[in-house]
Request: fold
Amino acid sequence: MKKLIIVLLCIFLLAGCTEPLKKEKVSVNAGREMRVHFIDVGQGDSIFIESPNGKTMLVDGGVKGAGQQVVSYLKELGVNKLDVVVATHPDADHIGGLIPVLNSIQIGQFFDSGKVHTSQTFEEMLTLIDEKNIPYNVPKTGDNIAFDDDLQVKVLNANEDATDNNDASIVLKIAYGNVSFLLTGDAGVALEQEMLQSDVKATVLKAGHHGSNTSSSAEFIQAVHPEVTILSYGEGNKYGHPHAEVVERLQAIGSKTYATAEAGTVIVSTDGVNYDVNSKEMSGTNVSAPQTSVSVEIVSKDLAGEIVGIKNNGNEAVSLKDWQLLSIEGNQAFNFPNVSLQPGKTIYVTSGTNAREGQNYLKWTKQQIWLNDGDAAQLRNAKGEMISELN
Reply:
């Protein structure tokens, strides 16, 4: 009898031990989720990527004042090392925050547009990279960045020889299975047109230039056809971002739109098949009024040389009488004289000690107007409507 009880007890215990093993099922996607964090850094860009295999990437860091916020956000996630950091282009609202990141977090590789800039912020960033012996890379259009074996990270644009910072923007398309992300930096309409030669279709789009109408052309939006679009900008910003026509284009194709100014940090999670967005869609209450459609735009800005180029890309001459060129940081305005800008022609507004006039040059002042560490330029017509801007 005693032996029988022992045998029965063993059978009972074995059954109890094996039952949990039968119930436990390991998901095929366990530990294989990718998360993309569009960090709320105000008027700027900062995107943190957690790969399916635990690799980490940071694309831009917002303005310098937002850098510590980015560091804190990463530390809260337990991030002590970034495998890859990408500085899309040298504008202060993209690279400024990378300086605190460089000072606080170990970095495996640093990718930069290679576009040279005279700002102190840019020089400080390069100095830190050199002092810390961080591998420094300048990618080319068409390159693939080695990051995670389960992801494809393709460079759709990189141009260190671009005349404008925005046109130098590193544009990345990151694909995980059937879900892809297109991160466009501040790529403008002309650059978007060039990228249409590539496969730009993506599930999630980070809209160029914070939702400005200098980016996100109707043709480009139609080609990308994003199911989700992220607009990264600061509430009440002085640039009027995002512009209504951009939001309307996104709505027209049925893209769900999310704004960091409204929702804070937006996180998109995906297993390569399905995806989820952790935020509420944009309400549209912060959208600026549509801008007048004019073919004149600011095409270049030399902060050190104090020269701003303005081109007429249309087929008809445009009178610039009573138009204004604005220095946003300096809160200064140049009032255009009664001149007409002919189709295909560029006129240059000059200032500083080398200011000149004659032919296609207009003299603003002998005083310095543009700040060498970054100053946005805006072009407004006679009605005060913003026609073009360049950070």
